[in-house]
Design brief:
single chain; 2 helices; mainly alpha; about 160 residues; Helix Hairpins
Length: about 160
């Protein structure tokens, strides 16, 4: 006897679920990377704030121009690092949106396959119930016929 449709859908459902789980993992890793980059950015902001304060203090004390120039150069490099990190974060967020769309697509496919399987199971159950009812009716009909035949023979 060939497999029922619901049984044939089982590997399809498993594969869809596996792919969805893989997409979720990739998406969550992507989000974690964005979060790590944002934490790194926050540290750079804090670091820059400290150097800004140091710059103000150095200027107020009348420190040598060479030291002031070195600090300005460092601040410039720090600002470039911050800009680069901001660009990285924006790019990573775009990648995350793509991964989210991919995950949602796979999630929807999984739901569709699941609904189809549920429909097949329902149809198969209906057919099974009808067949059982038919067998029960046939059995009762046969039993009834035997009773009638038995009564007619006893007369």
């Amino acid at each position: 006897m060939p497999k029922q449709k619901s049984q044939r859908m089982k590997p399809v459902n498993q594969l869809a679920e596996k792919r969805e789980q893989q997409s979720v993992i990739i998406y969550s890793q992507c989000l974690a990377k964005v979060q790590a980059l944002e934490e790194q950015l926050q540290k750079l902001y804090t670091y820059r704030e400290g150097y800004n304060q140091q710059m103000v203090n150095l200027s107020a004390k009348g420190v040598g121009s060479h030291r002031l120039q070195d600090t300005l150069m460092f601040m410039s490099n720090l600002n470039k690092s911050i800009e680069g990190l901001l660009t990285q974060i924006q790019h990573q967020k775009i990648v995350c949106e793509e991964k989210k769309k991919e995950w949602m697509l796979r999630h929807n496919k999984t739901k569709i396959y699941s609904k189809v399987t549920e429909k097949y199971i329902s149809e198969e159950q209906t057919i099974k119930n009808k067949n059982e009812q038919k067998l029960l009716d046939e059995f009762n009909q046969t039993l009834f016929q035997r009773q009638i035949n038995s009564k007619s023979r006893s007369k």
